[in-house]
Amino acid sequence: EDQVTQSPEALRLQEGESSSLNCSYTVSGLRGLFWYRQDPGKGPEFLFTLYSAGEEKEKERLKATLTKKESFLHITAPKPEDSATYLCAVQASSGGSNYKLTFGKGTLLTVNP
Amino acid sequence: NAGVTQTPKFQVLKTGQSMTLQCAQDMNHNSMYWYRQDPGMGLRLIYYSASEGTTDKGEVPNGYNVSRLNKREFSLRLESAAPSQTSVYFCATNRASNQPQHFGDGTRLSIL
Fold first, then answer.
1. pLDDT of A104 strictly over 80
2. Chain A with chain B: Cβ pairs closer than 8 A
3. Could you say which DSSP state residue A82 is in?
4. Residue A42 class from Cβ within 10 Å (0-12 exposed, 13-18 middle, 19+ buried)?
5. What percentage of chain B has pLDDT greater than the value 70?
6. Chain A environment of B92 (Cβ under 8 Å)
7. Among A40, A58, A108, B95, whose Cα sits 20 to 30 Å from the Cα of A82?
8. Cβ neighbours of B41 in A, within 8 Å
9. Distance, CA of B50 to CA of B29 (rounded, Å)
10. Which residues, in sequence order, are CB contacts of A84 under 8 Å at separation 6+?
């Protein structure tokens, strides 16, 4: 069974204090790993897709990296507007549906001014 | 561009009532999905439609039915609502199975 574990559950940072969120996964052949941002009362907003170990993607203050067992979302010099819940999801390449995503429970990030 | 539109945004039902949640997309995507999100749990797939005319069960399909009305619309029906179905329901779409899914803003459903 595919599993996704995100840590920490919650993270509080001061504005400008860089940190990383972790997404550990167990999947029978990774087809893709997806990062989303979710604001209160809204649906998840797509950030990145990573397909193979060693791949990196960047967008503004966010950088996502992927290894064979985990992904990190690095946040450099965060601002209060980066406060949100960050979700990680994996898609397996073998067994079951090619359409199924397995989501982690998320990391609630709060950035204080 | 509206993207993915879900209606209604909020709904309160009594146990045993029926209801249909609506989802419409203007992204010309082939695949559509219904998820539920509960506190302390990740998003869980209820049903999906890989393409117009097809539907398949996801992880938690019991108590739900779906209809892919056309390429744009995918509805979720609760025939006899139960308190355990109190949740936030999200619709999502993507162009192909390995592409990112794009989500609506959800329907918040309470069943008393």
1. yes
2. 59
3. G
4. middle
5. 99
6. 43
7. B95
8. 105
9. 10
10. A37, A38, A39, A109
